Amino acid sequence: MRTGPTDARTHARLSHFQALYARVERDNAELAALLESLPLMNERLAELVDYYETQWIEDYATIDSFPSGEGSYSILSEDTIYNELCSRRTCLEELRKACSDLLSQG
Q: CA separation (Å) from 6 to 3, 14, 20, 28, 44?
């Protein structure tokens, strides 16, 4: 069995790529978890959109009748929910582009 600088370089290279492989394996698990969570994310968004399109305006109009200090609801700000809807769309568009770019790289 040979020993010397070549063995040390080989060991260093193997250690590096073993660690890199472990990181890629964790990255793939994170991607799989994201894919698995997308349907639930979409359900939550759909419920919020339904509220925003149906009940929100009524709640917005009646909040002033609450006693002072009773409840603080950021969702009643005029742009809060809309901004999150736009943010979701932007994120999904960026994700689509990133995936397309990655897939085109081979």
A: 7, 12, 21, 32, 56
